[in-house]
Write a sequence for this structure.
């Protein structure tokens, strides 16, 4: 129990610190923040349950009024705005990413972490995000999807980096990969 | 840890956090249920009026917190303008701005400690279903304590990288930072165990 609490807390802190990192801009002008990569990493490294809990604790602190989201945003306002669906989707994204890394052990770790990050951190996350945006902006699902598809290339880059980071962490210290413990 | 609570003292700072959250839920449901342009114009005017009551400094801080909405607002207005429903777009934008502004208002007028009390109160029924409230509280406190410490470690890693390389470290900082966090987590788990764990004090029934 103590290990779960400390790992969940420290990874929630990692997600917050990743939000303080300066954003990258891709060649085609799309900004990429490291924070959403923290969500993929939480699942890939901590596993489904602990990863989702770390994201949930992080979001609870954001709701309580701490400016922990990239760009110093936070408070209750972000949970009623157009990107609220993406925040809700972070929990499911970390869970699905972790679940795939936990269960799929027959393929190389890099491939598994990459595929898991794409399914969890893009497919699942955008499903929540697009529904949230459709509800807040009173649009159809296709219209809402059209508004956010521009960010998918950046997220594919993040999934690839998450795969590389997961492999390098597993090589440096195999026991640190709690999703495979 | 810096929170988004406004340093400008307002009357609402003294109101119970639960009451403010209840009013916020009611207002958000009402905003979602209405489609009339006049209603949403009045709602936004009323919300801005609430921001103006404590003075110009509070009002400007409130407006700054809404800056992130303008690209979405512009896209919605342009889209609905082009598809022949400009009034529909205005209603959507007014509703979104009012809802976010009211939610931000609750955040700006409620201290972190008051919000934590609400979490504790909301968690009590869940505790009967097995939620360990003590573990949750310890977890939240640990995150708040760990963010500045990890942030400082990230700064040290960045400086040591820059001393050895010309290029910015970017994502290369993440593996060592994650390893440091996982190491810290192991130490914290040991320390928690040594102090009686997170299960809470055991009670013994007297015969």
């Amino acid at each position: 129990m103590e290990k779960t609490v400390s790992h969940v807390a420290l990874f929630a802190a990692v997600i917050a610190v990743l939000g303080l990192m300066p954003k990258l801009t891709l060649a085609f002008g799309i900004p990429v923040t490291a924070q959403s990569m923290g969500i993929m990493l939480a699942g890939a490294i901590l596993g489904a349950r602990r990863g989702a809990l770390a994201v949930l604790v992080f979001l609870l602190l954001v709701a309580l009024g701490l400016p922990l989201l990239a760009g110093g945003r936070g408070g209750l306002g972000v949970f009623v705005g157009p990107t609220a669906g993406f925040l809700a989707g972070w929990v499911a994204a970390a869970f699905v990413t972790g679940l795939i890394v936990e269960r799929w052990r027959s393929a190389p770790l890099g491939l598994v972490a990459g595929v898991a990050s794409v399914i969890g951190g893009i497919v699942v996350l955008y499903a929540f995000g697009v529904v949230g945006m459709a509800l807040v902006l009173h649009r159809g699902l296709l219209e809402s999807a059209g508004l956010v598809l521009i960010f998918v290339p950046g997220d594919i880059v993040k999934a690839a980096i998450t795969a590389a980071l997961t492999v390098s962490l597993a090589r440096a210290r195999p026991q640190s990969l709690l999703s495979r413990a | 840890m810096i929170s988004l609570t406004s340093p400008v003292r307002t009357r609402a700072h003294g109101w119970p956090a639960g009451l403010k959250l209840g009013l916020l839920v009611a207002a958000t449901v009402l905003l979602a249920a209405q489609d009339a342009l006049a209603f949403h114009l009045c709602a936004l005017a009323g919300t801005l009026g609430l921001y103006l009551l404590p003075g110009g400094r509070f009002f400007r801080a409130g407006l700054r917190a809404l800056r992130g909405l303008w690209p979405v607002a512009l896209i919605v207005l342009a889209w609905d303008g082009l598809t022949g429903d400009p009034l529909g777009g205005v209603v959507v934008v007014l509703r979104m701005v009012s809802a976010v502004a009211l939610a931000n208002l609750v955040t700006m007028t409620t201290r972190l400690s008051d919000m934590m009390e609400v979490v504790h109160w909301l968690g009590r029924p869940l505790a009967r279903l097995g939620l360990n409230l003590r573990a949750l509280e310890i977890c939240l406190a640990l995150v708040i304590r760990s963010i500045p410490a990890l942030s400082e470690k990230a700064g040290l890693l960045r400086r040591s990288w820059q001393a050895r390389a010309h290029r910015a470290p970017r994502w290369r900082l993440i593996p060592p930072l994650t390893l440091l966090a996982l190491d810290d987590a192991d130490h914290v788990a040991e320390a928690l165990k040594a102090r009686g764990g997170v299960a809470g004090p055991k009670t013994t029934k007297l015969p």
Remarks:
- The longest helix of chain B spans residues 133-164.
- The helical segments of chain B are 17-33, 37-52, 56-65, 70-82, 86-108, 112-128, 133-164, 174-194.
